[in-house]
Each structure stands twice: as structure tokens, then as C-alpha cells.
Write a structure and sequence with these properties.
six-stranded antiparallel sheet; single chain; alpha/beta; six-stranded mixed sheet
Amino acid sequence: MLNELHIENIAVIERADISFGKGFNVLTGETGAGKSIVIDSIGAVLGERVSRELVRRGAEKGVVTAVFDLEGCETWLEDNGFEAEDELILQRRISADGKSSCRICGMPATAAQMKELAQLLVDIHGQNDGRQLMDESRHREYLDRFGALEAELKDYSQAYGTYVEMKKELGSLQMDELEKARLSESLSYQIDELERASLKAGEYDGLCSRRDLLRNSEKLREALDQAIELLDGGDENAVSMLQNAAYYTGKAAAISGELESAAESINSAAYSVTDALETLRDFRDSLDFSPEEYDQLESRIALLNRLERKYGRDEEELITYLAECRNRLDDIQYADERSAKLEKQLKEQALVCRREAKKLSDSRRAAAEKLEKNIVTQLRELNMPSVRFAVEFTPLETEEGFDASGADRIRFIMSANAGEELGRISRIASGGELSRIMLAMKNVFAEKDPVSTMIFDEIDTGVSGIAAQRVGEKLFSVSMGKQVMCVTHLPQIAAMADNHYLISKEERNGRTYTDVSRLDREGRKRELARLHGGDNITALTLASAEEQLEAADRYKAQRLGSY
């Protein structure tokens, strides 16, 4: 439930603090006073798109803060990392340059998170919802939501998804013979070229290292020969001198134990130098090569470079690409066989789709019967006694007989008056009838909707007289289970309010200011009198307003007594 709303520097509202109550909340006021700005402010704090035009002229920023009950959104808050104590506080700041920021319980949030959370809090019925009702492409969505058909839709969607993937794969296999021959020839050529190259992972780096080594072989050989000469050349070389030193130090250690570690170190050094000498000799011997080896290295490296440039892949990627080409060639060569097998599987999956589509259709038809009865009941309570409402099912005229939504084309049809044929809502319903149909549907859907607050922005469009009274009574009935807010111009609706707010504006020092005030009994009487007769408020219009409030009180008491 929305408990408090703080609006600061939004359009013509400099500052307003509104405490909403339970039950039926009504907002009235002259056209242009700012009633819709209050609804727009609620939309802003619930993540709807905003623009800099919303900020009051001359202000640096506009701020909207809303305080809700926590009930119903605890899990969402926990899953999204937000902490709340006793209440849920949402805030939206809009700067004069059009930038905005959001906070949930004081923590930064995105507009998308606000909008997602809003689905658990508020259902706003705007002036465009009637147009949505005339959009027949959305009627199936309305029915599925009413019937709570999530499980059936999921089962069908899985079957249809598998069917689509199979059909896509089959389409990729089915190509004309000319295209098949061209692609086979291209793949065969690439496979032959790459196979003849006998590619090996890591070969290129090894070849380059060997080539660079051979390029510098003369310098290496000279350096190695000098090192080997110093280590093992002539009588006085490093190896023999170390060995002699190790021998004599060993003799000394035999006499004095303190020299044992020195003897071991010199002896170890002699062995290490001897091992290093053998390594140098082996490496020098490996430098013996023929000019043919160098040419072969250069040719091999040039081949690998050419293949990498041609295919735009490095060595390891070329090996992977070769395997892909072989698989693609196999796919083409065996495409007919695989296509035949896949066609059979596709037919079987089509049967699965039709079976799941029938289950979905059956569930939809069962839901449609309940929806028809509920809508008709609601509309008759809204002063449409002769109304007929039906859900029309038409089989899809596709090749398969089904699509992503199932096997049904669904639209709502109705007859508003006795003796008229059922027809499209867009052609049959007037503006006032559309408002009542939408209210009826909202009331029906509200029974399964988790939100605790419903907002109606001028639901009374095109409604007057007894119909307006019935709309007011229906809104009050809805408010017995949910918090309802309504912007209205009709006294019949305003009289049913539990909490009545007056939106008024005035000029002060050349600027327009909008105020929001909660009316007491006397204030409500004067506002109802204004709604009846305009500025000409007389004793008669005041008495009529008082009578209307008393009648509303009696109706509400009766409804609450039977609730």
C-alpha cells in the first residue's frame, strides 16, 4: 500500500506531501490543476521514463519520494541486495538537464530495478489502456494472464522451440545441387591444401628457432670452440686444474677434518664444469648442418606464413579449421540421408507441438468461459444490463497450424445493446463503454494480481449519470480488497471516496503553484457541489452534495456489512 508521497519541484507542484489511506482514495480538481501530475510523479518513482520537462521551471532538480508497506516485496528486496526495516522507501531525482537517479531504501538503484519492483506494488490504469483493449493482438495475453496458464505456455514453448531448431537445421541441409557442388569443390580444395601441409601444433615457433640458430651458427661455433679450448685445451686447462685442486684439497681434508666441506665444494665444481663441457661439445656438434636443411626450413616457414595469411588463422586455428572443413564436407555428402532422417523427426515434433497446443487451447477455452461470465457480471453491475461478451477462437491459418503462441487466434468480441450482433470491441464500444470494460477487466484480473495498490487515471472518460454511479460503486468494491486511487471529474465517483484530496492551483507573484489538501466532510460537500454546478455553489447544490454523501455512506455500510 502507498502510504506517503512527497513531491518537490515537479511541473507546477513546488512542494506537496500527501498521506494516502486505505480503501478508496479520490483526487479531484479543476482541469489543469495538476491531478495527472500526481499520477505522473508516482509513475516516475516507479521507474517510468522521465524527461527534464518534468522539472519545475527555475529549479535545479525535481524529487519524488514514495513510502510503501513492505508486504509482498521482501523476497525481491533480498534477492536484489536491498535492505529495508519497517517500510519501503523509493526515491527518484530528476535534474534540470534531464539526468535522473533512483534509490531504494536509501541505496542506489536503476530505473529498470524500480520498474521491476513496481510490478509488485502498483497497477496503474492510464488513459491509453482503453486503446490497448482494442488492440486484438493483446487479447491472447489478457486471457493467458487471467487463466494463469504459465505452466501450459512453458510446456508448449519448449516443444515449439525444439521444432524451430529442427526446422532451421533442416533448412541449412537443403540446398540446390549447383550450390552443393560449388561448396563441395571449395571444401575439398581447402582440405587437400591443408592436409598436404601436414600441420602440427607448435611447429612454426620451433622452425623459426632452428632457422635463427642456423643463421648464427658460425658465431656460435667460434664462441663454443673458445670456451671448450679454455675448459679442456692443452695441459693447463680449467677442467684439469679443478680436478688437481680437488685431489690435493682431499688429501689435506684427510689430515684436517675442517677442510672436508671445502674439498666437497671443489670436487662438486669439478664435476659441474665437466658436465658443462660435455653440453657445450654436444651443442657444437648439433650445429653441423647442410645448406639443404636451411633451405627446407625457409620453405616450410614460407608455406605456413602463406596459409596463415590466406585463411586468416594462426597455426592451431588452421588445424581446427581443417577439422571443421572435413565435418562440413561430410555434412554435404550425407545431407540427403540426414535430411530424410531429420524430416521424419520434424514431423514427429510437429505432432508433439500440436498435442501441446491442444492442451493449451483446452486450458484457454476453460479460462475463456470463466472470463466471459466474470466480465458480463461486472459489466452488468456497471449499468450495461444487455451486454454480451465472448472470447472468439479461430484456428491459425499457417502451414503447420501453430506458431510461437499456440494454435489459436484470440480476440474479444461484444455486444453492448440488446439485439446487436457480437462484434469487435473497437467497432462496438463507445468511449464510456471502453472505460467500463477496462474497469471490469481490471477488477477481474485484480483477484489474481499480487499488487496491493491500483491507480485509475480518469476511468470516468465518457461516463455520466447512473453509469458513473455504478463505476464509483465498483471502484469502492475493488477498494475493499486493495488500495484504490482515482483521478475523477465526476461527483458520483468522488462521493464514494474514503479519502478525498483536492488538487488546486493559484498564481502567486507571477508563478503558478499547485496545492494538494485532504478534505474533511464539509470540504468534500463543497467540492461535490462544485463538480455538480461549477463555481455557482448554492444552498441547493450543497444540500444535493450532502444527500449524495449520505447515500454513498449507506451503500458503503451495506457493502461492508455483507463483506
